[in-house]
Amino acid sequence: MVKPVIEPVIEPVIESAAPSNNSDNSDNSDNSDDVTHTAHRQAAIPTPQGVKIFRRIEWVLNPVAYLERTKTQTPDFFVEDSLGFGFGPIVVTSHPEAIRYILSRDHTKFTSPGEFNSILSPLIGDSSVIMLSGDRHKERRQLVTPAFHGERLDVYGQLICNLTKANADKLTVGEPFLARGLAQKLSLETISQVVFGLTDSHRSKEIMAVMTKMLDRLGSPTSALLIFFDRLQKDLGAWSPWGRFVRLRQQLDDLVYEEIRDRREAALHNLDAAPTDILSMLMAARTETGEALSDKELRDELMALLMAGHETTATAIAWAMYWVHKHDDIKDRLLAELETVGPDASPMAIAQLPYLSAVCQETLRRSPVAMFTFPRVAQVPVEFMGYRFAAGTTFLGCIFLTHQREDLYPEPKAFRPERFLEKKFSPYEFIPFGNGTRRCIGAALAQYEMQLTLATLLGNYQFRLADSKPELPRRRGVTLSPSRGVPMIFEAKK
Fold first, then answer.
1. 247 vs 9: CA distance, rounded Å
2. Is residue 83 included in any domain, yes or no?
3. Residue 30: is its pLDDT beyond 60?
4. Which three-class secondary structure state does DSSP give residue 55?
């Protein structure tokens, strides 16, 4: 892979910056953004304490401990070169004003190179919207985005409710189950319909089964070492860790390519059919030069959408089930709100319930699935928050630490949905899906699915937590997930 052409950053390229009337030579309008220029910075932004290799191992095996430690040692900013994103040291910030400055200036002062996400390439290839840059990224994003917004959400709403009931009806009264396992099945079936239009076909079941096995192979913190240390990505046979992953990936590739081939053949015999799923839309699309996407490009896009479109949502739903059932007062208030719309309410009416929305927002704040925004690279020298950064500096916004800031969220460890009814947070204070040109394409669908799944489960069934043990966040691939999967007991159908 060719590395982006940027100025290499070997030492932190941060200088103390005195207050200035012109924060940036390229844009006088930015003066109002430098809200902390009254504070003169005397020291460079620090690096977390400890030896680099040990920091990286801690980051992979126990990212929450790593981030909590950096918050104590280096509030607002720190410089790190062991996270696995980009090339060289990265400036990490949790301050909403810094995040706003960076993410609101995509294209003008910052870029978001897809190559910096290369750590994901073993999972999703190198041709999906996540991996593309510049005009190609913009073109692909515009192509895919409509499938996750507007009228399409109306179509998906009843599907989500029906799938939730169908799977919950299979639970046995009195028997334990993992909320995350149930949520993953629901979310994967939903995104399979959105992406493939697949229903109950044999191939769709195979795709979902193999994908679940493949992701579970990388689900533990120790397995995640394979993602962050590419020297461990050695196929030493079917029983080696990477070898098992590679073979599962090949099984999944074979199934996806079979689906693409069959779709191409079917399209030749039905030229007038309007595309109703993302695969059909991608196959019908043409680039500005009139070219169709190759099978490899289709495969990579589908893999990215399938993985990103169900893993994160499933985790968020599991966390919501945990927090709601951990606090009886919250569950009671939510059930009372659901009763106000009745059993025949439309999916859109359910999703507009304010307390339900607040519960889902507080879940995403208290237990964020993604830890960082996508990397940005400064294309020109920039100055904000009293610091001056050279062109070529790479930045990450830390979602996890931003959501734990006491100045934004008093008692940040407490689960209090009311905070989202009492105050409207800016998109740089509450940022579960990132922002700017790299904001999650499926954010609207993810929130909609989370609301409808939680409402359907609580409104039609009774559950309880299997025990009183706390559920802690643990690495699952590049995300955070409940360490125990949220063990629950199905008590009754209403």
1. 38
2. yes
3. no
4. helix
CA–CA gap between residue 225 and residue 230 (Å, rounded): 8
- d(C-alpha 448, C-alpha 470), whole Å: 27
Q: What is the DSSP string of 262-320?
A: HHHHHHHT-TTPPP-SHHHHHHH---TTSPPPPHHHHHHHHHHHHHHHHHHHHHHHHHH
Largest CA distance in the chain: 70
Considering the entire predicted model, what is its pTM? 0.88
In this structure, are residues 194 and 309 in contact, taking their beta carbons and an 8 Å threshold?
yes
CATH number at residue 84: 3.30.43.20
- Distance between CA atoms of residues 362 and 451, nearest Å: 12
HSE (CB half, 13 Å, CA atoms) of 139? 16
Helix (H) or strand (E) holding 476: strand 473-476
Main-chain phi, psi angles of 481, to 5 degrees: -145, 160
CA distances for 489 relative to 53, 264, 335, 412, angstroms? 42, 45, 18, 28
Q: With contact defined as beta carbons under 8 Å apart, do 452 and 183 qualify?
A: no
Answer for the pair 454, 359: CB distance below 8 angstroms, yes or no: yes
Residue 189 lies in a domain: no
Buried-exposed string 158-175: b where 16+ CB fall within 10 A, e elsewhere: ebbbebbeebbeebeeee
Q: Which residues are registered as beta bridge partners of 84? A: none
List 475's β-bridge partners, or say none.
480
What CA–CA distance (Å, rounded) separates 214 from 404? 32
Q: 386 and 95 in contact (C-beta within 8 Å)?
A: no
Residue 361 lies in a domain: no
CA-wise closest residue to 220 among 487, 466, 480, 488: 480
Q: Pick the more confident residue, 147 or 446.
A: 446
Which pLDDT tens digit goes with each residue over 61-90? 999 999 999 888 888 999 998 787 666 789
Domain that holds residue 24: 14-133+371-402
- Evaluate whether residue 448 is within a structural domain: no
Confidence grade of residue 271 (pLDDT, cut at 50, 70, 90): low
419 backbone dihedrals φ, ψ, rounded to 5°: -60, -30
Average the pLDDT over 310-337 and give the result: 96
Q: What is the 3-state secondary structure (H, E, C) of 335-359?
A: HHHHHHHCCCCCHHHHHCCHHHHHH
Is pLDDT above 90 for 434?
yes
> How many domains is the chain built from?
1
DSSP secondary structure of 88-139: S-EEEE--HHHHHHHHTTBTTTEE--GGGGGGGHHHH-SSSTTT--HHHHHH
- What is the CA 6 to chain-centroid distance, rounded? 26
Beta bridge partners of 479: 476
Kind of pairing between the strands at 473-476 and 110-111: unpaired
